[in-house]
Inverse folding.
DNA sequence: TAACTAGGGCAGGATTGTTGACTGATCTAG
DNA sequence: CTAGATCAGTCAACAATCCTGCCCTAGTTA
């Protein structure tokens, strides 16, 4: 019943591409099989508990995580067009339409016609939507602040770099754009 | 229903608990509102694209992410009882039963009766299950290896610390146990 | 023997996601 | 100005995944 090849491989800590990079050497141990397995665990548990933090509030309102995701990205990108939001969430028009309909009906999201292109419905959070998004965010922020503070600024920078590396190129580009906008709006803490 | 306070707060980059920790000072900027928002983005995109990496293979087999999660944790905990697996995944018996049934029927997972407690069904991966899990893992490993290598060992350590801080205490305890077991099985690279 | 526990199973429903096709409004290029 | 492309909303039908309750069997434990 046991597969010798599979079982052996699971215990074999061979580092991929042993010494291609120069200043690496033995420290490439962090690329071992077991480390990659552990990273799977980290992503699963962190994401599970992070998203879970807001679920209590969502349940009270009869909403789900999809609503939260929409609120989050509309809040971070006021005036975003429906198509662009679809691209961020990577879901279909139908899936978004369902949550968007309830969010608009319940007064959390407002739609305004685009000026340049009047076909577009630009999405923004109403004051109620901002308040709700903030309530949801606060729950998650507690966890983040605790984790960030405990780990320290340097660890946070490492976290940021690894997370960016895991995601798609398109997602990285989006983050860069968002960051640039944030710096522009508040140009005291930024670089340059 | 509209909350003007929420709107104002959304623009206010106040650092929480300004100078409670000693060696912090201005570097506590990384706890600002915007940094927390950015962390939400990081978690969303990294998790989205990481899980997505294995979806192609899963689709071919008519399986979903729930199957992958079960395979992953059974593979990492051979002989795990159904109840313990439920505790890890944090889903209901029914949800697990569905995926477990298909995994057993298709020969990816084997059930053996517990010796100490014969009510238990201890779960292990069959050779086919190990092979499938490995195929799925390889896709995700590509991303992880690239991200880890690009970020460097120090960044990886920071990533690990932050991710641990985000998750529940119970999840951290599980990771510690798993790590200890791995060290025991291969006591050359470990500490102590 | 009685009470508890591990696991399986069923009924019924909610959420979130999919594909595909169609409509309407608007923009753009020839 | 017309033809085609694009943005968005909508419908139907379906599938994956999750949920709450409830009941059952087998085995453990007091």
């Amino acid at each position: 019943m046991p597969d010798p090849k599979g079982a052996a491989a699971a215990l074999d800590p061979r580092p991929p591409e042993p010494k291609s990079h120069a200043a690496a050497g033995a420290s490439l141990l962090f690329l071992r099989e077991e480390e990659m397995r552990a990273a799977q665990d980290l992503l699963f548990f962190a994401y599970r508990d992070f998203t879970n933090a807001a679920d209590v509030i969502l349940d009270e309102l009869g909403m789900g995580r999809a609503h939260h995701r929409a609120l989050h990205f509309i809040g971070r990108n006021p005036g975003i067009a429906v198509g662009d939001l679809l691209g961020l969430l990577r879901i279909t028009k139908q899936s978004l339409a369902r949550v968007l309909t309830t969010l608009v009906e319940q007064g959390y999201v407002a739609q305004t016609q685009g000026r340049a292109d009047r076909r577009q419905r630009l999405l923004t959070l109403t004051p109620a939507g901002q308040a709700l998004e903030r309530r949801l965010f606060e729950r998650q922020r507690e966890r983040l602040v605790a984790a960030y503070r405990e780990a320290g600024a340097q660890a946070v920078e490492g976290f940021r770099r690894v997370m960016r590396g895991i995601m798609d190129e398109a997602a990285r580009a989006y983050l860069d754009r968002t960051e640039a906008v944030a710096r522009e709006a508040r140009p005291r803490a930024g670089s340059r």
